Amino acid sequence: MAGKELPGIVLSSGGLDSTTCLAIARAEGFSPIYSLSFDYGQRHGNELAAAAAVAQAMGAAEHRVIRIDLRQFGKSALTDAIDVPKDRDKSEKSAGIPITYVPARNTIFLSYALAWAEVLNVRDVFIGVNAIDYSGYPDCRPEYIAAFEALANLATKMTTSSPGKRLSIHTPLIKLSKAQIIRRGVELGVDFSLTHSCYDPDESGAACGRCDSCILRKKGFAEAGVPDPTRYA
Questions:
Q1: Strands across the sheet containing 8-11
Q2: What percent of the chain has pLDDT above 70?
Q3: Structurally, how many domains does the chain consist of?
Q4: Under a CB-based contact definition with an 8 Å cutoff, are residues 33 and 22 in contact?
C-alpha cells in the first residue's frame, strides 16, 4: 500500500473508546481519516464538542455531524424523559439491557457511515464497540458487527459492482478491557482530557461520576494505572 491512499471512516462519539479507535486507524496507516458523529437528540452536547476537538487534534481530513432525531421514538434515558441510572453495582448491570440503550442506534450510525463510504469510495469503517467492558448493548457484539458487514457487502453499488472488493468494518477494541483500551490510547498519544463519556453531566459539563459510563471509565483508568483527567462533579 506504500504511496497509496488508504482512507477510512471512524465513527466518533467523543468518548475514550472511539478516540482510541481513531488513533489505532491512524497508526495502522489509514489516511485520510474521516470522522463521523451524530446529533441524534441525546441528553447533552458535550460529547459532540469532544468529538470535534478530537477530530481536530488528531488530524481528521473532515469531521461531519449528522443530525437526526431519535427523540421521536424515545424509550431510552439518552433520548427520553427517563432518569439515567446511577450507582449501579455489578449484579444490576448484568441483569439485562440498560435503559441507556438507544434502540437500533449503531445500526442507524453504521448505515450513515456506509452511505458516506460509498460516496467517498472508502472500504474501511472503524467503530469502537466493545464486548468486554460494556453495558450490555446488543449492538456491540461481534455477531452483530459480522451481520452488518455482510449486509453492507450485499447492499451497495460500490461492493456489488466490484467483485472481490469488500467493505470491512473494523472493531479493534472489541476484545479489550477498558484498562487495555486506555493503555493502548496512551501508547498512541491520545489526549484523554479531550474525551467525554458521561451520560448525565452537569450544566458546566462536569461528569457525574455515578452513571454506568462514568463508573466504567473510572475503573478503567484505575486498573490501567493511568491518571484520570476527567473533571467530575
A1: 62-67, 33-39, 8-11, 124-126, 168-170
A2: 97
A3: 1
A4: yes
Dist. CA 105–CA 207, nearest whole Å: 23
pLDDT grade, residue 94 (50/70/90)?
A: confident
Helix or strand holding residue 64 (H, E): strand 62-67
| Distance between CA atoms of residues 27 and 13, nearest Å | 19
Q: Domain containing 106 — which CATH number?
A: 3.40.50.620
Which residues on adjacent β-strands are paired with residue 232? Answer: 207
Task: Report yes or no on 229 lying in a domain.
Answer: no
233, part of any domain: no
Neighbours of 229 (CB within 10 A): 11
**Who's near 64: CB < 8 A, 6+ residues apart?**
34, 35, 36, 37, 116
Lowest mean pLDDT among 133-137, 165-169, 189-193: 133-137
In this structure, what is the dihedral angle of CA atoms 199, 202, 207, 211, given to the nearest 10 degrees? -40
23-62 as b/e: b if 16+ CB within 10 A? bbbbeeebebbbbbbbebbbbbebbbebbbbbbeebebee
Task: Dig out the grid coordinates for 228 from the structure.
Answer: 484520570
Q: Is residue 231 part of a domain?
A: no
> Could you report the per-residue pLDDT of 200-219, keeping only the tens digit for each?
999 999 999 999 999 999 99
Confidence class for position 162, pLDDT limits 50, 70, 90:
confident
CA gap 36, 153 in Å, rounded: 20
Here the cell at position 167 is: 467493505
Give 40's Cβ-side CA count (13 Å radius): 20
Establish if 230 belongs to a structural domain.
no
